[in-house]
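Homework help board

Subject: predicted structure for assignment chain

Our instructor gave us this sequence and asked us to write out the predicted structure in token form, then describe one feature. I got the tokens but I'm not sure how to describe them. Can anyone check?
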Amino acid sequence: MARTKELTVEDKLRALYELQQVDSKIDSLRTLAGELPQEVKDVADEVEGLKTRLTNIENDIKECETQISDHRVRTENANASISRYKEQQNSVRNNREFDNLNKEIEYQELEIEASQRKIKHFTAELEARIAEKANTTKTIEERTVDLNQKRSELDQILAETKTETEALMLKAADLSKKIDERLLTAFNRIRKNARNGLAVVKVERDSCGGCHAKIPAQRQLDIRTRKKIIVCEFCGRILVDPEM
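My token output:
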């Protein structure tokens, strides 16, 4: 059974460098969307919050209408009681019965006054809630327009880059198979921690292409021989020679 040819250090370095180039291209394509994904999420959350607020306002409106209706019914019942008590006063047999009916009339009049105050309070509250509902509805409409526009922009960008991104991701997967697991794990860790996502950089003008720290001449010579994996002593990035 034929043995699979083991990759040389130079082969591994070349695979790492090519993988870095592919990943950087994927990063740049994703950067095209900029802040749009987060903006879409923020506006979507805002719209949902406004809808919840609108539901609460509508519930408040119903409660105000119920309270106004209830106190109007109480007022009508109190007026009916007053009419009945006044009619009964015409046929009382003594002053005590007359005074008792008078107290009932006074009580009902107080009930009417209390209900009128409540009606006034809930009417003002109702008007405020109706105005708030109109403003909230308008805001929802405006923010929904913004949300749809941002979603459309994001969808267009994703659609334009989808084919290229998918092709690059397949290429990255193929390159990853050429790199042993330990080295690939280190590469991904460095990329994750690097501000610009660069895990493999060239030596440029005697310096690290990532952090720009000076590379000693002997170390540069070792890098050019491509006999071992060498990392920057300052930033930890994998170094390759300019000819790579």
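Reply (TA_rk): Your tokens look well-formed. For the description, you could write something like this. The chain has a mean pLDDT of 93. That's the kind of observation they're looking for.
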